[in-house]
Amino acid sequence: MIARLRGRVAAYEEGRVVVDVGGVGYLVHCSARTLGRLPPPGEPLELLIETVMREDELSLYGFLEAGERQWFRSLRAIQGVGARIALSLLSALSIEELAAAIAAQDRSRLARASGVGPRLAGRIIAELRDRLERLPAAAAAAPAGGEAVASEVEDAVSALVHLGYGRSEAYTAVVRARQRAGEEAGVDRLVREALRELAS
Q: Would you say residue 59 lies in a domain?
């Protein structure tokens, strides 16, 4: 199994990069976000690799950061999410945005990725929500506290959604507002602080 490649960029193709390692060209699939951060042809490059083996094919998927590779693995473990859809999600959303969308149970945000419909988005949320705290970039996406805190956060998010904000956007603002205002902040204060957050 290949876990890492270090070489030079030989060429770019649609959704892929060819990495020249000692005269051998490795075709590596990458998210659009990763491809946008890679150097021009001829420049040195190092990628973390996830090797995916099927009956008739061996494919390489490349990542600049371990966190993105961990999200890729977690997404692929969900029924109905193959490597292509996992890359599509990582192309459409950063891992921070993915964590926020899952914490906020925002199906429409996940469904922006190609190949992800509302049903699959719901499955992704159901499977990853309870494991979210073990994934990179998820710490800021979920508030600490019990059911009462979750209820206050949900009420504040609902208020912002009714004002026209997207669910993930509202959820992230409320979580940040709660971190600033403290655990004793009520729904009204959370909404006020979140509106300030959204306006900045």
A: yes
